[in-house]
Amino acid sequence: MGAAGSKLEKALGDQFPEGERYFGLENFGNTCYCNSVLQSLYFCVPFREQLLEYYANNKTPSDAEENLLTCLADLFLLISSQKKKTGVIPPKRFVQRLKRQNEVFRSFMHQDAHEFLNYLLNELADILEKEVCVAKSDQQTSSPSEMVINGCISKGPQKEPLVTLVHKNFQGILTNETRCLCCETVTARDETFLDLSLDIEQNSSITSCLKNFSSTETLNAEDKFFCDKCCSLQEAQKRMKIKRPPHVLVIHLKRFKYIEQLNRHKKLSYRVVFPLELKLSNTVEDADAEYSLFAVVVHVGSGPNHGHYVSLVKSHNHWLFFDDENVEMIDESMIQTFFGSTQEYSSNTDHGYILFYERLVASSTS
């Protein structure tokens, strides 16, 4: 990426951020799904900084244990510590580890970026949780009520869920409310999430998709709800609300839909507007949670089983376009070209697929 790298440096000129590095990632045969997600996570600055801090505090030469967490941290460190400002880095160690660990990603076939992101975040959280359990078993002493072990917060002896750096950044809480239409009793059940998968419609927006996500559904006929108070099946109304918004809101647009008549999945090229600034109003909290878009994973292609992935990333108020080894600067106005198509068959097949929003400090919970 010599020429492209120097072109990027020239475009940024004196505005090149101090200490920041913009490196493309080598493609090892259809690993664009991996590269696009890794770039998005790298420019999720709080996550990057916490991961590198964890790595600095826990990496020792005697550590022979290699896992996806150490490989990811090693890659992030490799990028951030480069002397050059731009260039190309082969994420070989990470990709090899991923393929060894999960046979789904072993083939050279087209993979799903959202499936990879979901697997990666859950795997990182599992690794951190296991390390905490091992550390706690080694430290069965009278410890303070809260201690930080290997990037996780452990609160006292009570059995509360561990808060890893993955949960701290990406986890939110949904509440599933069901109201019995006979006795009006409301049953609420909480569940955690690391990303929201939203159904999409033609000529819609993220805001309308979120409203549909939280819309009221009536349970009747064969879908009646068993009410504990009535001790019988009753008609009910059900809705899903965001109880606690995450620090980093990851939205997955469900662009691949199974069509029974065709007996296969089809890509929905619908135009879905995603704003640079987003307000979450369908939350249990009274105040709106405000977010700013900082990364987009884009699927390029007309179908689910083939195509390409690229990513758009905002860094220090500049938008960058990452396409495997190539990195270039783009104007903010270009973002709207990735909303989707108003017509089913269009020459533009570059559509926003995974959106990354960071919660603005003023709207974060204390």
Low-confidence stretches: none
Portion of residues in helices?
A: 25-40%
Quantity of strands, as a count: 22
Radius of gyration: 22 Å
Q: Which class best fits the helix and strand makeup?
A: alpha+beta
Query: Order of helices and strands, N to C?
Result: HEHHHEHHEEHEEEEHEEEEEEEEEEEEEE
Sheet bearing the most strands, described? 8 strands, mixed
The helix tally amounts to 8
Calculate the terminal CA-CA distance, rounded to whole Å: 43 Å
Shape: globular
Give the overall average pLDDT: 89
Beta-strand proportion: 25-35%
Put the structure in a nutshell.
This protein is of the alpha+beta class.
Description:
By secondary structure, this protein is an alpha+beta fold. The longest helix is centred in the middle third of the chain and has 26 residues, at 113-138. The protein has helices at 2-12, 32-42, 45-58, 68-80, 92-101, 113-138, 165-170, 206-213, and strands at residues 22-25, 86-89, 146-149, 152-155, 172-180, 186-193, 196-198, 204-205, 217-219, 225-227, 232-234, 236-244, 248-253, 256-259, 264-267, 272-273, 277-280, 289-300, 308-315, 318-323, 326-330, 350-359. The model has no long low-confidence stretch (mean pLDDT 89). It is built from 8 helices and 22 strands. Strands 7, 13, 17, 18, 19, 20, 21 and 22 form an 8-stranded mixed β-sheet that branches. The protein has a 4-stranded antiparallel β-sheet with strand order 6-5-12-9, with no helix packed on it. The chain has a two-stranded parallel sheet with strand order 1-2. 32% of the residues are buried.
